[in-house]
Design goal:
The protein is α/β, with parallel strands linked by helices and 283 residues long. The chain has a single domain, classed as P-loop containing nucleotide triphosphate hydrolases (Rossmann fold, 3-Layer(aba) Sandwich), CATH 3.40.50.300. It contains twelve helices and seven strands. Strands 3-4-2-5-1-6-7 form a seven-stranded mixed sheet, sandwiched between helices. The structure holds adenosine-5'-triphosphate and magnesium ion. Magnesium ion (MG) binds next to helix 1.
């Protein structure tokens, strides 16, 4: 029986050689908890700090892809081609509208192909991990956005965090009680792969320990002065997994969407941007 991860598992203890790609998957099977917002903000925080960043869109609604200025109806290739082994990952990557961020885009085809992908060996879950391992361009950071469920595409994202041996799963959790249910479900998905991926880790893997890792729970859309938020954060702390800095609720996040940037590029001094930068610093 897998043990729930303990607090000491925070990923900040990982060595930081420049040539290792860190792979993070942002997941929660509840919708609207801030997964895509978090991917964008963390990716732009790292890009603005001078790192090479790739974001991978595993959500067929393609919100991340569209936010990066890409017309999802005009794509020649998309991430489903990689998962079906039709294209290499490097062949689907394009440049998005935010400087320093490349994107492996998604579109509606991904939803149509999900069943075919999950019928592949090992449920297709290894496909992205292997694609990242054979990527010929170096990225310092890869952030993977996932749909709001715990099905094949989310599992593919979770498994891919073991590609280089450095990275993990970030669990955004909106400050309301139903979000905690989604959190438990996704933690169980992560734990279900523990011990099964060791042979796919690179031989020179710098980190020993259980894989896939949970980086921590990221409380999102928090209104610090509200009793509910305080209670939810207290409940999250009891889940016995690391708690990342809390992201406050702010209208600036909605405004940033219209600007085509993340909150980091749109309003770097706003409270949620400062909080996301704090999170980015431990990745
Ligand atoms: N800190 C915040 N303050 C205010 N609004 C926010 C904040 N974070 C996210 N939002 C808003 O909440 C909505 C949902 O966010 P987002 O799309 O990132 O969630 P998601 O988990 O990716 O959703 P889905 O499950 O549908 O993919 C968006 O309209 C976004 O602008
Ligand atoms: Mg989303």
């Amino acid at each position: 029986m897998n043990q729930r991860p303990k607090l000491k598992e925070v990923s900040a203890d990982i060595p930081s050689p420049k040539d290792i790609t860190r792979v993070y998957c942002v997941a929660n099977n509840k919708g609207g908890v801030g997964k895509t917002t978090s991917v964008l903000a963390l990716a732009e925080a790292k890009a603005m700090a001078g790192f090479n960043v790739l974001v991978i869109d595993l959500d067929a609604t393609a919100v991340l892809t569209v936010h990066l200025g890409i017309d999802r109806t005009e794509l020649q290739r998309d991430i489903s081609d990689v998962l079906l082994e039709i294209s290499k990952l490097s062949e689907v990557i394009i440049t998005g509208s935010i400087p320093g961020i490349d994107v492996a885009p998604s579109c509606a085809r991904l939803r149509q192909q999900e069943r075919t992908i999950s019928a592949k060996n090992f449920g297709g879950e290894l496909q992205l991990l292997l694609a990242i391992q054979s990527l010929d361009k170096h990225y310092d950071y890869i952030f993977i956005d996932t749909p709001p469920n715990s099905d094949t595409l989310v599992r593919i994202g979770v498994v891919a965090t073991a590609a280089t041996g450095v990275g993990g799963v970030i669990l955004p959790c909106q400050s309301e009680f139903y979000a905690l249910l989604g959190l438990r479900d996704i933690m169980d998905v992560v734990l279900s792969y523990r011990g099964k991926l060791d042979r796919f880790l690179p031989p020179d893997c710098p980190v020993m320990g259980p894989y896939p890792r949970i980086v921590g729970v990221l409380p999102t859309m928090a209104a610090e002065r509200q009793k509910l938020t305080r209670n939810v954060i207290a409940a999250i702390s009891k889940v016995e997994c690391p708690l990342l800095p809390t992201i406050p609720r702010s209208v600036k996040i909605g405004e940033s969407i219209a600007s085509g940037r993340s909150i980091i590029g749109y309003a770097p001094d706003a409270a949620p941007a400062r909080a996301y930068i704090q999170v980015a610093e431990v990745l």
